[in-house]
Amino acid sequence: MCAPVLSLIKSLPATPADYAVGEIITWTIRALNSGGCAASNLSISDVVDVAHLDEATLVFNPPGATWDPVGKTVTWAI
């Protein structure tokens, strides 16, 4: 039986460990399919620790992500 085998990898730059106020913080989430079939109708969500971030300035790429301010979660439909 053919099935997708999915994994996610989330990474932040190794340095700097401390970010300055106003500095851009970029993290990457990679979705990988090592299975023998294509995956479709996926949703990828990430809880964002906004304790030290200004939610009003958050930008998500690719565009089209939805932000849940209550759950502090960003979700992409792919």
**Contiguous helical run count:** 0
Q: What is the straight-line distance between the termini?
A: 23 Å
Q: Helicity, in percent?
A: under 10%
Reading the helices and strands in chain order gives EEEEE
Structural class comes to mainly beta
Structure description:
By secondary structure, the protein is an all-beta fold. It has strands spanning 6-11, 28-33, 43-47, 66-68, 73-77. A three-stranded antiparallel sheet has the order 3-5-4, with no helix packed on it. Strand 4 and strand 5 (73-77) form a beta hairpin.
Key features of this structure:
single chain, 78 residues, mainly beta, 3-stranded antiparallel sheet, two-stranded antiparallel sheet, 32% strand, elongated
List the topology elements.
Layout: E1 6-11, E2 28-33, E3 43-47, E4 66-68, E5 73-77
Antiparallel strand pairs: 1-2, 3-5, 4-5
Short description:
The chain is mainly beta. It is built from no helices and five strands.
